Task: structure prediction
Amino acid sequence: MRYNERELLSLARQPAEKAAEIRMSVPKKGSVLKKRLVKLVVNFLFYFRTDEAEPIGALLLEHCKITKEEENVFSISFIEEPERKYCFECATEEQCLEWVEALRRASYEFLRRSLIFYRNEIQKMTGKDPLEQYGISEEARFQLGAHRQ
Result:
């Protein structure tokens, strides 16, 4: 996927849904845990050196697996590249669980499934499609029957 660097930097400066200084390692041979400022904005996880304003990297949280590894450690790996694994060490297990939950809820696919679920629930309760009032038809992007899981 291509990104416009200027737009990505602008996104990195937006208010975060979650941010903290935690220890992180990247999927390079011999990589060690280093303290990084980690910032979740929409479905991107930006990471910064603790003394710098510009991110040194960003992870698009799509088609990835977020796994709680140990008491206070979680990882992010990508479905197409399972060997590309980022590890994060939190100060506490509670902080780790909060990060895992926030990251799992950040993906477009999670939001899409939630929209479809709530649209179906409202339609069951009211007998009407809640999106019709906005001119969004059955053929629209978020069809009721699409990709049920």
